[in-house]
Amino acid sequence: MANSMPATADGQHGSDVTKRDFLKLVTGAGALVGAGALAWPLIDSMNPSADVLALSSTTVDLAPIQLGQAITVVWRGKPVFVRHRTPEEIKGAATVAQNTLADPALDSARVKKGAEQWLVVVGICTHLGCIPIGNKTTEARGDFGGWFCPCHGSQYDTSGRVRHGPAPANLAVPPYAFEGDTKIKIG
Amino acid sequence: MAGLHKSDFANPVINWIDTRLPIFTMMQKEYGVFPTPKNFNYFWNFGALAMINLVIMIATGIFLAMNYTPHVSMAFDSVERIMRDVNYGWLLRYVHANGASMFFIVTYIHIFRGLYYGSYKAPRELLWMIGVVILLVMMATAFMGYVLPWGQMSYWGATVITNLFSAIPVVGEHVVTWLWGGFSVDNPTLNRFFSLHFLLPFVLVGVVFLHIAALHVTGSNNPLGIDVKSPQDTLPFHPYYTMKDSVGICVYLLVFAALVCFAPNLFMAAENYIPANPLVTPSEIVPEWYFLPFYAILRAVPSKLGGVLLMFGAIAVLFVLPWLDTSPVRSAKFRPIYRNLFWVLLIAVVTLGFVGAHRPEGIWVVLGRVATFYYFLHFLVILPVLGKLERPLPLPESISRPVTSGGGGPLPGGAAAKPMEKA
Description:
The complex is a heterodimer of chains A (187) and B (423).
Chain A: H1 6-13, H2 19-44, H3 50-54, E1 58-61, E2 70-75, E3 78-84, H4 87-94, E4 118-122, E5 145-148, E6 155-157, E7 162-164, E8 176-178, E9 183-186
Antiparallel strand pairs in A: 1-9, 2-3, 3-4, 5-6, 6-7, 8-9
Chain B: H1 12-20, H2 23-32, E1 35-37, H3 46-65, H4 75-84, H5 89-116, H6 125-147, H7 152-163, H8 172-180, H9 187-218, E2 234-236, H10 237-262, H11 292-300, H12 304-319, H13 321-324, H14 336-357, H15 363-389, H16 400-404, H17 419-422
Antiparallel strand pairs in B: 1-2
């Protein structure tokens, strides 16, 4: 009975904190942890499922891609640009002064050593997710010879680095590896 | 029989039910004899219109869902099947799609009514904040509904809007992947948007109930913005305002029907009649008209995170509006400076709407920035300062007085009889 009446409890223990306060806190904390544990499966069910993750790699045959041309392949539901760069494009991309870049990155860090002619980037503008144009040589490629995003005017160079416009970052380079000379596996 | 309700209804069946569950007594109290200020103008119709609109959206939506397939390879075709093959499917879809536009028209008028007449001020702060929650839930629901037909604009609208969350530092990318349920907008995204688009309207019903419950505690504001002082200031809700609302509903349905029957595609992007293609971005992505002002604010600053913060800030500022406006006078009718600045704000918002519809080039960039700046200036600087500086006009003694004396303004003190005596 004394426990249900704080005033009495105060008198008995000479303290403001009663056993009941402690029990309330422990019960409340326990319920909170329990609710969190129950909520997690619901929240995590919205993350990519096993079958979506299973589609996370794509193999691309590079042989048919002509010099100067680029193709679009689908990886994880996103377009990935694979571009066969000309020697001039490689040279242009490698010799840009780093301090002129919005998101500084060396061209050598964006391609595989010994295969500098192949540029592989996720074809999604880092601004708000539109797909830049410029894969076909007949399309607008912007002032820097790479890609041009028609949504808000971002321009990328031949290394997929942002050179102009609202995009904050370079086109992402997906994880990929060569499986032989003319085949890559993305993902 | 302790605990039973003493019912006054004569009809024995109603009386029997009402004794055990006094819903008839409640309806009579809240919608029958409910004392309502007698000086409402037609701007006070729009709450009821929004309610009717919600009912129309839920009704048409349930029947659309019976024929819709939430799968990336079938969604577009199922919508076209609704349009061509399902009996009255075209009507259901056009009412539902245009109903969204009508809902926002009605709600925006309702909100600006509140801004003009100071309906957000004490003691109605919570009522107003619940209203802002309703606006947010409405926006989420409308956005997800627009994705369901899985046209080009659906797909790319979903991509751009979900990508806004990637602006959040550190966890942004994870949040977006979680929202998508994959690595791009795809079937899992469509499925969950359908599920949530079905759920949220019912959440909306719950929040609207709270909005009305709060309203029935404080009572309605009125065009004079002064408190009800006596029963002479009020009329019973029925038949006076049920009738006035009915007039408004007729006009509203007339406009709605004209839109559905004569210009059903007025607000729709032609681009959305092209099936979604994840590999081709339309040359121009424009959101639905009711999001254009917010879209313009998003693009007003050349920073991704900054734009996103400003856009959400444009709504967040409404939450704290009751404390930003320091003037104790509610109605703009008695605030000579605020009355003008209200229209400047409205022009700024409409300007933002036009800016949002154009590519961010040339004059539109400048206009967008100026209007965005003014929007925040109005709420964050002008309203707090103006309340201290402005000299309001003298308030009328009561609602009855200007009404019964035949004029809008107050008479000189002591020149007329006390309102109580005029009843």
